[in-house]
Amino acid sequence: MIVRSATLNVMMNAARKAARGLVRDFGEVEQLQVSLKGPSDFVSSADLKTEKVLRQELAKARPAFGFLMEEGGAVAGSDSSHRWIIDPIDGTTNFLHGIPHFAISIGLERDGEVIAGVIYDPIHDELFHAEKGAGVFLNERRLRVSARRKVDEAVFATGIPFKGREGHKEFLDCAQAVMANCAGIRRFGSAALDLAYVAAGRYEGYWETGIKPWDIAAGIVMVREAGGWVTDLDGRNGMLNNGEVVAGNDHLHKPLLKLLQQASGRTPAAD
Ligand code: LIP
Questions:
Q1: How confident is the model over 5-28, as pLDDT tens digits?
Q2: What radius of gyration, in Å, describes the C-alpha atoms of the chain?
Q3: What is the rounded distance in angstroms from the CA atom of residue 220 to the CA atom of residue 113?
């Protein structure tokens, strides 16, 4: 029997409530793929509607907490220690194209550290949840990172920059270094689910740059609670500020980080 805090229950219930409308909207988007106008405006409204439900539910339960939201930006609370970090649809491009791989992500930050996270994939009904010191779970099952120890047996996920995003050359250099040494690279399009999958042991690591705090906040605490490591490209804890994330199981985070630092010309931080 998992004993969860009241706050984590609030987060899980908010994600489930917001997901009901999102699944309905996703069904519409699949139909809109063939319309001349396309679904862009419809997805924007789905994003905003989902974020509105999340904000209402979380503010009702914890009215003093602040917010950092993908659509609504930063809203200070009377409690300056706590803030919610929310992505209503992580994997927006997937959602827009009718690709069933996206998630609602809610992180809770206390004094600059993410202490709880919920990532809900409503299409597959997979609710990942974690609290600092209490472990990470997929629905009711406790998770642990993969036990693989060798880079050449590892599958890593990443995010690929596109038109309007910087870092194309650095990405190609990093991808070349990783692909030459591992068993495979995957690009699914949701940073939140990439981190949740590292925590679940579905792959051994994940890296991306140019990422936003709301994409990764919830996943950071999940990987750490699963026994893995999450740093930025310097091997430090600056992910939420510099948009760099390197996550891995306890054996392969360091080898992955070293490959990426060498490929991108970074100097490893002193141990
Ligand atoms: C997405 C991330 C993904 C990244 C995309 C985008 P969004 O977040 O989850 O990893 O590669 O470019 O940033 O925009 O769907 O919330």
A1: 999 999 999 999 999 999 999 988
A2: 18
A3: 10
Atom of ligand 1 nearest to the CA of 159: 11
Question: In whole angstroms, what is the distance from residue 106 CA to residue 120 CA?
Answer: 9
Structure tokens at 247: 């996550």
For residues 266 and 245, the answer to whether their CB atoms sit within 8 Å is no
What are the pLDDT digits (tens) for 31-83?
A: 777 777 777 877 788 999 999 999 999 999 999 999 999 999 999 999 999 99
* Structural domains of the chain sorted by starting position, each given as residue range(s) with its CATH number in brackets: 6-142 (3.30.540.10), 151-264 (3.40.190.80)
For 51, 108, 190, 234, the CA distances from 65, given in Å and listed in that order, are 16, 9, 26, 31
Q: Which residues line ligand 1 (CB under 6 A)?
A: 70, 87, 90-92, 159, 189-191, 208, 215
